[in-house]
Amino acid sequence: MKTPPADDDARAAELLKSATDDENAGRWDAARLKLQLAQAHRNTPEVAERLARAERRVEPPPVSSRLTPAPRPVSNATGPSGLRSAPSAVVGDASAQTPVSSRTTPGPRPVLDPTGQRSTPSAVAGGASAAPPVSSRSTPGARVPHVPPASPSRPRASPMPMLLLSVLRNQHLLLGAAFATRYPHPWLVWELGPRRPAASAVERNTLETQRPSQAGAPKAAGHDPLCFPLFGTSLRVGRGDDCAIVIDDVTFSRDAGVLSLVGASWSFHPSAGGAPVPLEAGSTVQSGDVTLTFETSTSFVARLSRPGA
């Protein structure tokens, strides 16, 4: 086996260091891509192990969506006023935090009526009901962007990893015949074409499917075909985040259909209805500006072997 050039080692070391910083910061998508590029320069067991670990990790949700719930009041701890008190931080500790229900803003000062009795003036003249106590008016928390939940009948799926065709071609050059052993599964390839990604997660999950681009529209510059390995026997394809294979293009349906494996044969079942479409090596699924090509493990290796494929 040839010794890799020094510039490959230097580039791989630079990518591994940058990937380590991304891993420590929880940026697993960026780390995964850098590890793929590092493996193309220096394919060692250490790099392969780190890449496999990164592919199993999912980035945490944004900080704004990780809200800490408030302590629930104790149902049987009521005082003379009938108000429920929040549990103290330390049981039996005289310095424990004052219950939430007792930390209210003082109300209006009492006045003497003609009979000499103390009374609290109404908040609104004419006997209208007073405003609710301050303790019952909750303070609005951080604004969290609304993302529609998955359908009750279709739980949110774990998305398939997405790999660049150029990275896989470099791996094939390094691994040779061992590539088919490492990747024995079929692939779905998102071919190059006009790409119109959604502006946000909300738009990706709620926007109606847009009309495709006009004929002859230029392909997306500086992009690679994107490759999805097909693990499992039933994979939903669509733009929505509850799909196993997410195609982020506004001209592609939020729920295009299901890839199904029965025996040794794959087929595509459109969500709009119609007969299932049997898939063979090189079969394509077209919707909007998106063209998806089905490749078996054998045909995918043959495609990587062809220059410019």
Short structural summary:
With 309 residues, the chain is α+β, with helices and mostly antiparallel strands. It contains 7 helices and 12 strands.
Task: Characterise this structure.
The chain is α+β, with helices and mostly antiparallel strands. It is 24% helix and 15% strand. A hairpin with a 2-residue loop joins β8 (257-262) and β9 (265-270). α2 (28-41) packs parallel to α4. It is globular.
Q: Report the count of strand segments.
A: 12
Structural class label: alpha+beta
Number of helices: 7
* Largest sheet, spatial ordering of strands: 3-5-4-12-11
**Which consecutive residue ranges, at least 5 long each, have pLDDT under 50?**
85-96, 120-132, 144-153
Radius of gyration: 30 Å
Distance, first to last CA? 26 Å
What is the overall pLDDT average?
A: 75
Shape: globular
**Multimeric organization:** single chain
Largest beta-sheet details: 5 strands, antiparallel
Secondary-structure element order, as H and E? HHHEEEHHEHEEEEEEEEH
- Strand fraction equals 5-15%
Q: Can you tell me the CATH class of the domain at 158-309?
A: Mainly Beta
